[in-house]
Design a protein that fits this description.
single chain, 153 residues, mainly alpha, globular, DUF6323
């Protein structure tokens, strides 16, 4: 095995271990990811990155998302992996659409506030309607976090 392949294997193992550590927090909310779940999420992430033509040097996006979303009232053990998969797709869609204007942390925070707030757990609304709102707010230089809470106008 050449050095690049060895490096990739080591990085993947490190990433898996870091995501497994997220279970210590998420289990408090009845949510855990198995090794198989994590490998599937990482495969999905790689496919998304290839589809959007991006390279990622920071491999903590999935960890950040698990920590941010595990306390959501709209995520349950029966939809956890599927929801995290869709949230990853939405994250990279937002990342691409905002052309790196926002940091990863800002996008994740925005997504969480919208998901728990005005989207009321709707992944469709988060991926379609809310992205339009975000882009309008960015173009108009508005505070992107205003109106995300449920019931805000």
């Amino acid at each position: 095995m050449d050095k690049i392949m060895q490096f990739q294997v080591i990085k993947k193992e490190e990433e898996i271990n870091q995501i497994m550590k997220c279970n210590k927090v998420s289990i408090q909310y009845g949510l855990t990811l198995t090794l198989q779940d994590i490998e599937g999420l990482l495969e999905t992430k790689q496919k998304i990155l290839q589809d959007v033509g991006r390279i990622e040097f920071d491999s903590t996006i999935l960890q950040q998302m698990v920590y941010e979303f595990c306390d959501s009232l709209f995520i349950h053990k029966y939809n956890y992996v599927e929801t995290m998969t869709q949230l990853l797709e939405i994250f990279y869609y937002y990342r691409d659409a905002t052309e790196d204007y926002l940091s990863d942390e800002e996008i994740i925070r925005y997504m969480k506030m919208a998901f728990d707030g005005c989207c009321q757990g709707s992944l469709y609304y988060l991926s379609e309607e809310q992205l339009n709102t975000l882009m309008d707010d960015l173009n108009d230089r508005n505070d992107i976090y205003v109106g995300l809470a449920y019931g805000d106008i």
